[in-house]
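sorry for the late reply, my laptop died twice this morning and i had to redo everyting from scratch. anyway the thing you sent over, i finally got around to it. pasting the sequence first so we're on the same page, its 221 residues, then the predicted structure underneath. double check i copied it right bc i was rushing
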Amino acid sequence: MTTFRILALASGNKHKLQEFEEILGPVGWKVESIRHWVPDLADPEETEPDFPGNARLKLSHAASLLKESSIRPLPHALAADDSGLSVSVLGGAPGVFSARFAELAGSGQGDAANRQELARRLREAGLVPGASAPAAFVCAIAFMALAPDGLVEVMAECRGAVGLAERGDGGFGYDSMFLPILADRKLSDRTFAELPSTVKHSLSHRGLALKALAAKLGKRR
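ok and here's the structure:
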């Protein structure tokens, strides 16, 4: 019988929680939002210039609040991730500002507004319907066992392209605009939002980062 350890994820994003659970579950982790222990958690301002720095910042912020929680038992470990989309023709944007792309542009908030802002910027850059622009998803994860055991960090990238059209009902964020490069080095004709979750996990930035984390944690057991 598998004995599960509890991992608190410094996020309330149900899609991220599901991806963490689907990939780390088979190696013995049950993933829950840190909001189980810190219901009123407010996300820190992401002030670092890169994904690993913001992942560490989120981890440190969540760890300090978790220590003050009166809810028991505490989780065995804590993790935070920072991820985003980088589009070459936009100078790497939205990058670390992926989650607030539209908000910072004054054009709205949330995933749908972010996609609309991305499409607007791509059109301004000269992209036409049916064409695509090289892009990459990046994910950095910072992990810390609550018993002193040191920090574990991983980062992974998924290269592909983005187009103007949105396709598919799965995924979240920019998934419906992103076409990943497949194992045979060909560009997929389906977006992340159209691919089955098992296929997406085998290709995606977060899937690759979580598998790297699972491998590192397995060696430390």
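The chain has a mean pLDDT of 93.
thats about all i looked at so far, will dig more tmrw
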